[in-house]
Design goal:
Blueprint (H helix, E strand, L loop, with lengths): L11 H11 L3 E11 H6 L8 H6 L5 E10 L2 E9 L2 E9 L9 E9 L2 E9 L4 H18 L6 E6 L8 H5 L4 E2 H6 L16 E6 L2 E7 L14 E6 L1
Parallel strand pairs: 6-7
Antiparallel strand pairs: 1-3, 2-3, 4-5, 5-6, 7-9, 8-9, 10-11
């Protein structure tokens, strides 16, 4: 995160302003850099704080980070920014040995005294890996989240053929775009979205106005177009 879709220009400050303009209560992020010594040396505007703290600043007063990939000069993973208190959070390693590091960041939020569960997802590039990772996701949903609790599962599923969608539906979740428009949202590549790789699933929540942010500035800030939705219960 923090570079344009060609990884040539450092745009983290622009990303922060764009995310603020949306005004979301909860933000799900993937491939957020917790630390990167190489980029810090190369870019004068590289923040001293981790990217998720820089993005959150004073707007989202609560945040959680799940470290997925560690390398000699730093690490990155999933993050969740919230205007509501985060009671607990745990990062589930769903990496397939010898391949890309992937994780499920599960947070329990306090929304006016009620518990809201949120899982930030980043799945693998291979279909066989995604099937196993979705099986693990369904285990978390079934075994660790009360059946009547409101739940949001969102992020990069890398499921461009849509073959994993039925597996998530079998867990009792609804995808907001599929339910509302009859098809999954196209989010990749950001400038000309063709492939439905990103999703928002919910359970025990009402939802309306799902949207794809594929125009400027978003089309020049990332290779994925972000998704938005309003939820209530």
């Amino acid at each position: 995160m923090g570079f344009d879709l060609l990884n040539r220009r450092f745009v983290l400050h622009e990303v922060r302003e764009a995310v603020r303009a949306v005004g979301a209560d909860i933000v799900f992020l993937q491939e957020v850099m917790g630390e990167n010594a190489v980029h810090k040396q190369r870019h004068a505007l590289w923040p001293d704080a981790p990217q998720y703290e820089f993005l959150a600043e004073s707007i989202w007063t609560h945040n959680a980070y799940g470290r997925n990939s560690v390398y000699p000069h730093g690490h990155h993973g999933n993050a969740l920014l919230s205007k509501h208190a985060i009671r607990t959070h745990v990062n589930r390693d769903v990496s397939i040995q010898g391949h890309e590091e992937r994780g499920l960041l599960h947070c329990e939020l306090d929304v006016e005294g009620e518990a809201l569960h949120a899982i930030c997802v980043h799945l693998g590039l291979r279909e066989s890996h995604r099937r196993e990772q979705l099986r693990l996701l369904c285990e978390v949903v079934a075994n660790e989240i009360p059946a009547d609790a409101p739940l949001i599962v969102a992020g990069d599923f890398n499921d461009w053929r849509g073959r994993g969608h039925s597996l998530v539906e079998a867990c009792g979740l609804q995808e907001v775009f599929k339910t509302t428009t009859g098809r999954l949202a196209r989010t990749f590549p950001a400038r000309w979205p063709m492939l439905p790789v990103d999703r928002i699933y919910v359970r025990n929540l009402r939802f309306k106005m799902p949207g794809v942010l594929s125009t400027r500035p978003w089309s020049h800030l990332s290779d994925h177009a972000p998704l938005t939705v309003e939820v209530a219960w």
